[in-house]
């Protein structure tokens, strides 16, 4: 800057060159000062901008950190809540596996965890509980079945001895009277008790506990009829060509047990008569049981067909009412021994029509020699022939029904009898009913 001192000095004696030099130096210094000031201002401005950017970046980072912290907190709460829900889910799985009705699995709590590993871990935990429950149930059921088989074997052995003793007493006390009739009634109760034990041992995975020789369909039907309470309401329409057809001994007892279950079901749901007849078909023979009850709806029929077609076993953890296990017993026997039972055939009486199909390869001609019949004396009634004595493998006697003239075709053999012949009729009936159980082998009849 040109000051007053410079002007005065120039005027007073300085040369023009000195003045110009002074002026130039002043201008240079002034320019340099401005540039320095400008640079300083720019630097300050840049510093301020950098500081502002850093502050803005720091703010953004702080905001991002806060958002992440909030998200982490939400994830934490979600995972904690999901594992809390997992406890409820596992409890529900345990209740469902235990067979409690009306239990529902609540499922996941948070849908936004779907794409994370958490649902997979929860699913694995549920499967682990199911697997362990199934293993425990299997172990418990196996132990229960073994226990049931042991108890049933022992009780069946004693009841078998009881029936053998009853047969011996009936052979001694042949006079028809109150004592004789009482023995017959006791024998019938023992027969029903034995059938109840057979039901349990079959569902427990064992065989029926009785091995028979070959028998006719007539003997099979009468033996099955004798194992239910209301046996007098069962009408067997006997036909010689089917009733005297023989069935292989290996499957006789299973078919009798299955048929007894069907008859018990028919008489339980109908107060009227129950018809039984045997038909020959292309595949073998059909034993038909038809009642006059209310029938079954589509759901009951579907459930019955399901039970009749599966190999059921007793589940100790989910044991149902023992009185409602008949179809399950029939289904197991049918699967084990190669016959079939179904209830899907239409009934002419609007009730239930159950059909037991025995394949042709399980039937055949009489395995026993025909007894020689002597010519009857003139003008006298012929005496009924006595079949040959049959014994079991252990030599125990088998009580056989006395041979009698075959009834006429399609006529019931179990109808009413005159009052004066009631005792004799009951004796003949129970002779036939005991024909199966008296042949049991107490030493080989255990599984």
UniProtKB/TrEMBL annotation:
<keyword id="KW-0472">Membrane</keyword>
<dbReference type="GO" id="GO:0000160">
    <property type="term" value="P:phosphorelay signal transduction system"/>
</dbReference>
<keyword id="KW-0808">Transferase</keyword>
<dbReference type="GO" id="GO:0005886">
    <property type="term" value="C:plasma membrane"/>
</dbReference>
<keyword id="KW-0175">Coiled coil</keyword>
<dbReference type="InterPro" id="IPR050428">
    <property type="entry name" value="TCS_sensor_his_kinase"/>
</dbReference>
<feature type="compositionally biased region" description="Basic and acidic residues">
    <location>
        <begin position="437"/>
        <end position="447"/>
    </location>
</feature>
<feature type="coiled-coil region">
    <location>
        <begin position="34"/>
        <end position="72"/>
    </location>
</feature>
<protein>
    <recommendedName>
        <fullName>histidine kinase</fullName>
        <ecNumber>2.7.13.3</ecNumber>
    </recommendedName>
</protein>
<feature type="transmembrane region" description="Helical">
    <location>
        <begin position="6"/>
        <end position="28"/>
    </location>
</feature>
<dbReference type="InterPro" id="IPR036890">
    <property type="entry name" value="HATPase_C_sf"/>
</dbReference>
<dbReference type="GO" id="GO:0004673">
    <property type="term" value="F:protein histidine kinase activity"/>
</dbReference>
<keyword id="KW-0812">Transmembrane</keyword>
<keyword id="KW-1133">Transmembrane helix</keyword>
<keyword id="KW-0418">Kinase</keyword>
<feature type="region of interest" description="Disordered">
    <location>
        <begin position="362"/>
        <end position="447"/>
    </location>
</feature>
<keyword id="KW-0597">Phosphoprotein</keyword>
């Amino acid at each position: 800057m040109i000051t007053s001192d410079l002007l005065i000095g120039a005027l007073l004696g300085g040369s023009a060159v000195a003045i110009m030099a002074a002026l130039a130096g002043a201008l240079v210094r002034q320019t340099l000062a401005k540039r320095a000031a400008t640079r300083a201002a720019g630097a300050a401005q840049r510093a301020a901008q950098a500081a502002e950017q850093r502050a803005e970046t720091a703010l953004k980072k702080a905001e991002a950190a806060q958002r992440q912290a909030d998200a982490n907190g939400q994830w934490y709460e979600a995972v904690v809540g999901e594992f809390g829900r997992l406890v409820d889910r596992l409890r529900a799985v345990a209740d469902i596996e235990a067979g409690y009705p009306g239990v529902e699995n609540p499922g996941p709590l948070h849908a936004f965890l779907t794409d994370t590993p958490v649902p997979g871990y929860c699913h694995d935990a549920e499967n682990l509980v199911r697997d362990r429950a199934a293993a425990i149930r299997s172990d418990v059921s196996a132990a229960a079945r073994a226990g049931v088989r042991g108890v049933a074997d022992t009780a069946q052995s004693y009841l078998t001895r009881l029936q053998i003793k009853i047969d011996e007493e009936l052979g001694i006390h042949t006079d028809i009277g109150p004592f004789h009739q009482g023995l017959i009634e006791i024998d019938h109760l023992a027969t029903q008790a034995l059938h109840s034990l057979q039901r349990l041992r079959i569902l427990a995975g064992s065989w029926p506990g009785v091995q028979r020789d070959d028998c006719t369909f007539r003997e099979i039907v009468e033996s099955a009829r004798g194992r239910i309470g209301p046996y007098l309401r069962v009408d067997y329409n006997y036909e010689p060509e089917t009733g005297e057809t023989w069935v292989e001994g290996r499957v006789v007892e299973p078919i009798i047990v299955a048929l007894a279950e069907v008859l018990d079901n028919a008489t339980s749901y109908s107060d009227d008569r129950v018809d039984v007849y045997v038909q020959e078909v292309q595949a073998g023979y059909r034993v038909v049981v038809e009642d006059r009850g209310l029938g079954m709806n589509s759901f009951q029929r579907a459930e019955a067909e399901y039970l009749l077609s599966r190999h059921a076993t007793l589940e100790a953890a989910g044991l149902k009412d023992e009185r409602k296990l008949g179809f399950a017993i029939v289904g197991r026997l049918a699967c084990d021994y190669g016959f079939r039972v179904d209830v899907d055939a239409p009934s002419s009486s609007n009730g239930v029509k159950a059909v037991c199909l025995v394949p042709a390869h399980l039937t055949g001609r009489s395995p026993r020699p025909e007894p020689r019949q002597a010519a009857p004396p003139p003008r006298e009634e012929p005496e009924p022939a006595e079949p040959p004595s049959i014994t079991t493998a252990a030599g125990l006697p088998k009580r056989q029904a006395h041979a009698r003239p075959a009834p006429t075709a399609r006529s019931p053999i179990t109808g009413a009898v005159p009052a004066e012949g009631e005792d004799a009729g009951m004796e003949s009936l129970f002779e036939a009913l005991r024909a199966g159980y008296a042949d049991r082998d107490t030493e080989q009849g255990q599984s």
